Amino acid sequence: MNIFKQQARVRAARSRMLAARRELGEPAGALLIRGRDHPLTTLGVAAGAGLALGSLDVHPLRVPGLASLLGGGLVEAVAHGRRLLAELAELAESAHAAAAPAAPGEDAGAPP
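Request: output the structure for the sequence above.
Response:
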């Protein structure tokens, strides 16, 4: 009978875990979307937090859990920077193509 009790506990724990995931999934998704929509604001908040920690003379690796956050955050920051540079390059390329006059003898409306 002990196995059945353990299985019942496991099922109850799994249902609580699923409920907690659903409960936290929506706010976490909203934060990720906000960070993707406003990358400069996210960067500003990170810089402000760094300035606050530095002015309080708190080493970030001494704060529990912050070392793993920085380790994962560095990869995300590089990915955001790469994405931002790619978008800026694409915008510059399209603006340059739109501003360039058509060569003599070429139809401006004809596809290349």
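The radius of gyration is 25 Å.
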